[in-house]
Design a protein that fits this description.
This protein has helices spanning about 5-15, 20-25, 45-50, 60-69; strands spanning about 5, 35, 40. By secondary structure, the chain is of the alpha+beta class. It has one domain (about 5-50).
C-alpha cells in the first residue's frame, strides 16, 4: 500500500517551506497526487528526490584533494 506525506509533514521532514516544495512539484522533481483538496507526496518520490541531490563536499575535503595532486 502506498504511503504519502502531507505537504506539512514533507516540509517538516525535509526542512523546507511550502513554496519550495510546490516549486519542486512544478519542476517535475517531486511527484504529487491530489485527494480532494489535499496534496500528497508519495514517500517513494520524496526518497528518490532526496537520493538525487548532490553530495556535500566541505572546503577541507576539497583542499585535501588538491594537496594530494
Amino acid at each position: 500500500m502506498p504511503r504519502f506525506y502531507t505537504v506539512k509533514d514533507f516540509c517538516r521532514a525535509y526542512g523546507m517551506g511550502r513554496t519550495r516544495l510546490y516549486d519542486l512539484i512544478a519542476a517535475g522533481k517531486i511527484q504529487a497526487v491530489k485527494d480532494g483538496p489535499k496534496t500528497l507526496i508519495p514517500v517513494e518520490s520524496a526518497e528518490a528526490w532526496a537520493a538525487s541531490l548532490p553530495r556535500f563536499k566541505s572546503g577541507a575535503a576539497n583542499a585535501a584533494t588538491a594537496n594530494q595532486s
